[in-house]
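Deliverable D4.2, example record:
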Amino acid sequence: MRGNYVILRIRLDAIRGFLECTDREAGAEIEALFQKRDAGEFASYEEFDSALSDPIMRQEIAARAVYYEITALVESELQASAEQPWLESDRHRGPKVLDWENLTLESIRSLKTIRDIRLNDLIRLIEDRYEVSVRELEGADIVFQIRDEVNAFKHRDGRIDFRKSDPTKYFTYEQYRADIEKAYQAIDQTCTFVRALWKATDREPLARGVEQYCEGGPNDDPWQP
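Output generated by the structure prediction step:
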């Protein structure tokens, strides 16, 4: 299935809109708290710090939500790009399609889908078919960094896997923090990566005249027409 500029723009605009709304609301609250601090309305630094933690946490939660949405979008695009080579693959055995004339509950439950395939296998299918390095596509660095952080939030309470860290820092407590500015950057780079993936896997949209939905414009802003 070919990509669609309009759908990609709608999805990423919705993610950006959510982030901007939460960021704006929390930012206004943070600014108001600093004004109260400067006016001497807090009895102690601890009281101010406690009040500040709530809007800051909302910003971090919003950034995490964006990370999750970006990761899901990228994975779905990788699945779409890998589906044809997967259907033709002897290494990944079926059944991959339903026999509608002999449909049974067992045949439905035994059906394999591209969504059963692990990320590394998706990438291998794409790279073998299209002779491209997925992780070297434009925008790939940040989208795969985001995915690593999402896995850390899900499985390790955000802790960085010490086995993949600087060996001089073994057993040092290190933790990812979802960053609001990185979340904004990730939205733009996801657009860049997805378009590069479409091009590399022959999934570029056939319709012309709508590239502006993700074209680079002034200052390399992918949202400018």
